[in-house]
Amino acid sequence: MFLAIDVGNTNIVIGLYQGRELQCHWRIASDRQKTADEYGLILRQLGHYRGIELGDVRSVAMASVVPTLTQNLETMFKEQFNCQPLVIGPGVKTGMPIRFDNPREVGADRIVNGVAVYELYGGPAIVVDFGTATTFDAISAAGEYIGGAIAPGIAIATDALFARAAKLPRVDLVRPPRVIGKNTVACMQAGIIYGFMGQVEGIVNRMQAEMGEVAAVVATGGLAGLIGPEVDCIDKVDPLLTLEGLRIVYERNI
Question: Where do the domains of the chain lie, and which CATH numbers do they carry?
Answer without folding.
Answer: 2-87 (3.30.420.40), 103-247 (3.30.420.40)
